[in-house]
Design goal:
Layout: H1 2-32, H2 39-45, E1 52-53, H3 56-67, H4 69-82, E2 90-91, E3 96-102, H5 108-116, E4 120-126, E5 131-133, E6 138-140, H6 143-151, E7 160-161, H7 172-184, E8 188-192, H8 200-203, E9 209-214, E10 222-223, H9 226-232, E11 237-244, E12 253-261, H10 268-291, E13 307-308, H11 325-335, E14 342-345, E15 348-357, H12 359-365, E16 371-372, E17 375-376, E18 380-387, H13 395-402
Parallel strand pairs: 1-2, 3-4, 3-8, 4-7, 8-9, 10-13
Antiparallel strand pairs: 5-6, 9-11, 11-12, 14-15, 15-18, 16-17
Length: about 400
């Protein structure tokens, strides 16, 4: 069966290549002869030719070379049918040039999706410089830099930028970076968890603007800890927000938002997995629709804005004998990756590594504490507890060793 599929694929590629070549020849003949900007037609139309830039024929040429005949036929037809003669020009490229700013490994799927989507061409990657790590403080490459080397092994050395300074008005390094970035002539800057605040002069460079992805609902969850705040506020769904950036954090105009449900047993780890799964395609489709002017950015409603506070040490400490389960479980869901919830027993720190609850029994016992003497709350299905400097253990082992 696989052999048959390979044969069909080869035949399809062969036919597609022939049709692409023939169509490109016909377009070239059209451009040299009866195109509206040639000969007598330009006088009749008084230079009110194709309103798009590039012209429809050049757009079709770029599409065919990039996508082939079968994949390119639909966008070409859509462009030609929407074209009206005009003296005004509207920039509408066959694909968008993107500079990707990012330093966090959870956003690697967004880089991979942009790279695999033919509608985009990544022309530069900007990330944080290598930093000392681990016990011996050896320099460790940024995870985005590592992935970029894997995805773009044939690119020049300067394809991955790691500038230390961010203000072109005060730094020669960033003035050079500004000049290089401007020379790239990008359509979009995609900025996600880059780690530095970009000056307005940098944000003004791209044709369509700088774009940011926020892993939560705006304007409700701004700033420091949006993912954790969703669980602490007991939300039943989460969001991804794509914004048009300016110099002020999280106050930017919203282009589009995507929501998805958060089931009772889901934690921040599951939320990040959902962001990695749903977010990349959503970003690519949003960028395309925004560039095509099919959607517009809208200002945030400031009356709905709230600020997510920085996570403090006291936030993840719990009292298993006094705090009720309704207060403990949202903290477990929010801090399950880091820093994890903990309590003290005989001056020792005890970390709760895992906490699984039965939803129906939770609703009946949520006003009770997690532990009453040696008895767990009836809603608990499974719990893994890690005493300080020890391995995680189940409830029975913990009782035998620590609750005698």
């Amino acid at each position: 069966m696989s052999i048959i599929r390979k044969i069909i694929k080869i035949i399809y590629q062969f036919i597609d290549k022939i049709l692409t070549t023939i169509t490109l020849i016909l377009i070239k003949i059209y451009q040299l002869t009866i195109s509206p900007d040639k000969w007598i037609f330009s006088l009749i139309l008084k230079w009110r030719i194709c309103s798009h830039e590039p012209h429809c024929s050049e757009y079709a040429t770029q599409i065919l070379k990039r996508y082939g005949f079968c994949k390119g036929l639909a966008p070409i037809a859509d462009r030609v049918l929407s074209c009206k003669p005009s003296n005004k020009k509207m920039y509408d490229p066959a694909f968008y040039r993107v500079v990707f700013f990012c330093s966090a490994n959870i956003w690697i799927p967004f880089l991979e999706e942009l790279n695999s989507d033919d509608r985009y061409e990544i022309c530069w990657i900007v990330t944080q410089a290598d930093k000392p790590a681990w016990r011996w403080m050896q320099l460790k490459e940024n995870p985005i830099k590592v992935k970029a080397k894997e995805l773009f092994p044939d690119e020049a050395e300067d394809f991955i930028q790691t500038p230390l300074k961010v203000n072109p008005e005060k730094s020669v390094e960033w003035q050079n970076f500004y000049d290089w970035l401007k020379a790239k002539n990008p359509d979009f800057l995609v900025v996600i968890s880059y780690g530095k605040i970009l000056p307005q002069s940098i944000l003004d460079i791209p044709t369509f603007g700088p774009i940011n992805v926020h892993g939560s609902l705006l304007p409700k969850y701004r700033w420091a800890s949006p993912l954790q705040s969703i669980f602490l506020n007991k939300e039943e769904k989460s969001w991804i927000t794509v914004m048009h950036m300016n110099a002020w954090m999280d106050t930017w105009d919203i282009i589009d938002q995507l929501s998805f449900p958060l089931k009772f047993e889901r934690t921040v780890k599951d939320l990040i997995t959902a962001l990695e799964k749903e977010g990349p395609k959503f970003l690519c489709n949003t960028l395309w629709n925004y560039g095509k002017r099919q959607i517009k950015a809208k200002p945030q409603n400031e009356s709905e804005a709230t600020i997510c506070q920085k996570i403090e040490k006291s936030d993840w400490e719990i009292n298993v004998h006094k705090d009720n389960l309704e207060d403990i479980y949202p903290k477990y869901r929010a801090y399950t990756i880091w820093p994890k919830i903990w309590f003290k027993l005989n001056e020792k720190v005890i970390i709760i590594e895992e906490l699984q609850l039965d939803e129906s029994r939770y609703n009946e016992n949520k006003d009770k504490p997690l532990i009453e003497w040696k008895n767990l709350n009836p809603a608990v299905v499974n719990i893994a507890i890690k005493p300080e400097w020890k391995k995680a253990m189940d409830w029975k082992s913990f009782c035998n060793g620590y609750l005698r």
